Amino acid sequence: MSSQKGNVSRSRGQKHQNVTAYKNDKYGATAQVKKANSKVHDGLCQHCKDVLEWKVKYNKYKPLTQPRKCVKCLQKTVKDAYHIMCKPCALKLELCAKCGNEEEIVIPLDQKDKEEEVEDTSKPNKGKRSKRDDEDEYDDEEDFDGMGISDDDCDGDSGAEGN
User: Fold this and answer.
1) 3-41 pLDDT tens trace
2) How far is the C-alpha of 145 from the C-alpha of 141, rounded, in Å?
3) Of 27, 115, 136, 142, whose CA is between 20 and 30 Å from 102?
């Protein structure tokens, strides 16, 4: 038997293999699936991150409906599913928020906040024009027309005087 305890060596490959990979949004993604797919698993070690990504990939991820109690500060501040610590405690103690071990954190919690600040400062009013900018351009056009001289008049007058 392949599941026999201690039997780790197999002489053949997998007997049945899927032709197509499983898709969690094959028949149209629900709001819950969309939210789970877009979630960034930050503040976790590599193993815990892989576990949560597997749960999302195969529709096993269930989000929390109510906040859970943090094991460090004992407050109801844990808002992410499968986590045992709130984000501030995990950041302060530099622990994995899911397993609580002191391992290398793949995506740090504070990195996401810094990226948002950089995006806000680097893209002020991207593609947007204020009403004030439009009025300034209109005023500039009026200043040149206010003199009563246009480019067409100058060219036309100089040509008429020369003939």
Assistant:
1) 667 767 778 888 888 899 888 888 888 898 999 999 999
2) 7
3) 115
From the list 11, 15, 33, the residue with the least C-alpha distance to 24 is 33
User: What mean pLDDT value characterizes the chain?
Assistant: 77
pLDDT at 152 over 80: no
**Domain-located, residue 85:** yes
Domain-located, residue 79: yes
* pTM, 2 dp: 0.59
Count of structural domains within the chain: 1
Q: Which domain holds residue 91?
A: 31-106
| Torsions phi, psi for 84 (to 5 deg) | -110, -15
**131-154 mean pLDDT:** 52
